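Preliminary data (for renewal application), zinc ion complex.
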Amino acid sequence: MTKCPVCGVNFQKGDYESLAKHISQLNGKNDPFHVGFIKDYIPMDNPDSPQFPSKLKGFFQINGNSLADWMTSVFVNRFYGEKPHQFMETMQRPKKSIFLGFGVEYYFFLKQKLKSLSYVMAKTNYDDVQRFEAKIIMPEFLNDGTEGKSQFSLLFKMCETLGVNKDTIAASSPLPPTLHSVKLWSSIAESDPWIEVMTSMNPLDILYSPKIKEKGAKTFFYGEGVLTNEWIPDQAKEFLAFLSDPSRDFAFEGLKVIEKYAKELDAIESVQAVFIRSLDALDRHLIARVTRARQYEGKA
Ligand SMILES: [Zn+2]
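Predicted structure:
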């Protein structure tokens, strides 16, 4: 089945003509999300032109590459290409406020991530998939920082150092873009098949993978000197180092699992569509981190 990579409506397998018609109709109505999709992935002056369906099909064509390679290159182009995402730019020479913006918005992302991965475990019958997700989920629930580390425990330590404690974070709300994205991930988790739920979440870890440098990324999610910069609190360095620790880098392992089952379950097109939807949600969440940081500026 083909799905709209923006709103998720279904089309017959391989029916790029109908998908193109749907996207260009909503583009004509100035729907910002469908307009944005064309702008981001298939830039052309006139999406009503007869070339649009074949260009759209070309974008999704995997050709000689693997599905994992296709996902990697779409991800890297979107977030780490010639013009890296605003969040990555901010993190090259970070002010302290960005660590608070990052930490507080990421807290809400991480809560949803663990729910989504738990849905994958509940919905799938495959042991290897359950084991893979369990590896990511368990430390977050079991390690409170006294013995083993977790993203949650390091995030709380980082924010506490910068003046915002755990209770304040838990009692706050995410900014609207993060909330909007969390609602999308939550609705995918509840309604869609496990392979799509998995695709909506696990590949987003590419953002923190040290391997992206080999995959054509022009930069990393924090600047080269950040971990040695004496102005940056140790707790922030520890959080960043933990997120990008090669021994906990499951992003590409996850892509392999997704690829294996997308083929087996004949779900490549729906996996591609949900992947694009989820990148958009990630993009909005990353912008919220920067916006939140501005709110903290002068206070941190
Ligand atoms: Zn649509």
